[in-house]
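user: can you give me the structure for this one chain? tokens are fine.
assistant: on it. calling the predictor now.
[tool input]
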Amino acid sequence: MDYISTRGAAPTLDFEGATLAGLAQDGGLYLPAHWPQFSKDEIAAMAGLPYAKLAARIMQPFVGDSLTGEELGALCDQAYGRFSHAAVTPLTQFDEQQFLLELFHGPTLAFKDVALQLLGLLFEKFLTRSHDHLTIVGATSGDTGSAAIDAVAGRERIDIFMLHPKGRVSDVQRRQMTTVRAPNVHNIAIEGSFDDAQAMVKRVFRDPAMNSRLHIGAVNSINWARLMAQVVYYFAAALQLGAPRRKIAFSVPTGNFGDVFAGYVAAKMGLPIERLIVATNINDILHRALSQGDYSAGTVTATAAPSMDIQVSSNFERLLFDCGGRDGAAMAAQMGTFEADKAMRLTNAQREGAAGLFTSARADANDMARAMRWASEACGEIIDPHTAIGLHAARDSGLSADIPVVTLATAHPAKFPDAVERATGQRPHLPARVGDLFAREEAYTELPGDYDAVTAFIAERATPGS
């Protein structure tokens, strides 16, 4: 499998190269040169497979010659052996139509673990082969940071520098990052928003001074391998609900568009998805883009769903590229306009290409709270604010009653206890497996939202690549 950049001017890479590169040299994002496809019979034959075996089956076409089937299978067994539920991503039923896909049974209680536990192992495998050292520079709006740090802490060939917006993540999210005491882990709290942090990370990948000395890698969803791993749980859920004989819809709370783009990939591979519902909070750039063609960044507003407090959705570029005819030069020009003006219009081809599968919905604080109360009072389920936004959109989708709607539960409710308690009157508790999180000492560095200050900090502490 070859990987190409959405902006058309970066070298074509294999899976190993794309995984270690993260962002493409031209500022674009890597995508497979073509979408592998499964027939209905092949999908039906996957029913009943344990999660790790299903993961290896789904991902093998993307991996190509970079890993043997045995190597990929062993990595999947190792990655998903750390989850607290044997099903890895179990499905819960709310009512006759509504279902919940629980993606929070990994070590840091968020859906990011499903991909990052595997990505950490892929990094280690590839770096050991090449005797190289990787400097991961990432930005987090809450859950990516803790999941990435857990996945790579203590690995000798990796340094990780994780930026989070100071004061804009929950206490649990922050502590899951800052209480990990490993010599290769560096937490940085910057002044500003997640969008500011993400812009710095992208700039690092294009900085000749940084790249001449360090091998820079990505754990954010700009890294294709992360999205690849997330495709699997769409298949897992759909198979349990009758696929490929039956169509399934998914409602996905999203900010950076990575999780829902994985659903788009699953559909491209042949999974019968009736609808992908993009659920946003009041930071609704994706809702405006999909419903009106208006991709214009506004001011980020802090909410009780901080992982969605984003106005620049990196992975949306992948969808626009694929729906717009895979024209790298045109995509580069379009994104150049957005980066200069923070605004652009989707083309007719892009809107038409997305319209067949995607719809979108926007939820405010009241919508979110009502969904949490409904889940608690009517179904006996406690859900977190992000999941509640997805559930609000799912229940308001207008889909035919014979189409099951699966809401992706992206985080354990105990990561956001204050918001949950305000809405439901119940305060969720952290699972015992998290341990004494609030008794551990924190360690992080506060820096201004200044690129030079951040890169100086990284350059002083990172190990050069080979």
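assistant: here you go. DSSP finds 19 helices and 15 strands in the chain. Residues 91-106+225-424 form a domain with the Rossmann fold fold (CATH 3.40.50.1100).
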